[in-house]
Amino acid sequence: MKMKTPSRIGVISDTHNLVRPEALAHLAGCEAIIHAGDICGQPVLDALARIAPVNAVRGNNDTGDWAASLRTHEIVTVQQTKILVVHDIADIKSDPREDGIGVVITGHSHKPLIDTRDGVLYLNPGSAGPRRFRLPVTAAILLIDGAHAEASLHRLIE
């Protein structure tokens, strides 16, 4: 019997209308991409969609007709793992555990973070867009194997 291999999900946020070649290279080979908001233009989503199907949420800088169809909260299920995607962690109003969420993906702060709280994996891939302050330019990979998820951060530029 063939075992299912882990799903490789690319996670990116806060691109602010910049699609770096390093980000595209990092996401190559992913079976799906999650963008946690502050996309700032449809061409960003189009570029990502050439790599893999994209799930995206609207960030505070995503305005205009192109962003009207984006939701502020999205739940994505990969294998047996429910993923809550929201731009700003402050917009989460309930306990993710009670909703059966295994992973919470956020953006907004531009600060990369991987943390586990009460059995829920919290991932902020940081910002893949223009450098802000002294924060690194990063994206992430989420590996999901059944109900188990693990994340890794990748610095896109030095």
UniProtKB/TrEMBL annotation:
Cofactor(s), names only, from the UniProt record: a divalent metal cation
InterPro entries in UniProt: Calcineurin-like_PHP_lpxH, Metallo-depent_PP-like, Phosphodiesterase_MJ0936/Vps29
GO molecular function, one term: hydrolase activity
Entry keywords, A to Z: Metal-binding
Domain Calcineurin-like phosphoesterase: 8-145
Pfam families: Metallophos_2 (PF12850)
Gene3D superfamilies tied to this protein: 3.60.21.10
This enzyme's EC code(s): 3.1.4.-
NCBIfam families on file: yfcE (TIGR00040)
Protein name: Phosphoesterase
